């Protein structure tokens, strides 16, 4: 009987521990390999960043690369950039809105379903 209680206790601890591990936040940038340098050229990174954080437009070629990268990566990279002290003074809601506009423009140009604006 004592061994049954021991195994039951171990079972409960395993379940609780696995729940704690599952509760950790997964970094979408790492999980989706967003920083793979083969996914986007430096030129397009600069062009898209300028369009989101300053002003400018995104060419069709860079839109294609952005859509290939994916919206999860696009949103995650923009949100991480907003944590950078260089961008701390920017209005987060404006930047997220501009990022959504860039994504929607590129998605529509590449026949991908656009996301709703934030």
Automatic annotation (TrEMBL):
- Name all Prolamin-like domain ranges: 33-106
Q: Does the keyword Membrane apply?
A: yes
Which InterPro entries has this protein been placed in? Prolamin-like
Q: Which keywords describe this protein according to UniProt?
A: Membrane, Signal, Transmembrane, Transmembrane helix
The keyword Transmembrane appears for this protein: yes
Pfam families per UniProt: Prolamin_like (PF05617)
List all membrane-crossing ranges.
6-23
Q: Which protein is depicted?
A: Prolamin-like domain-containing protein
Question: What organism is the protein native to?
Answer: Corchorus olitorius
Q: What does the organism's lineage look like at the top?
A: Eukaryota, Viridiplantae, Streptophyta, Embryophyta, Tracheophyta
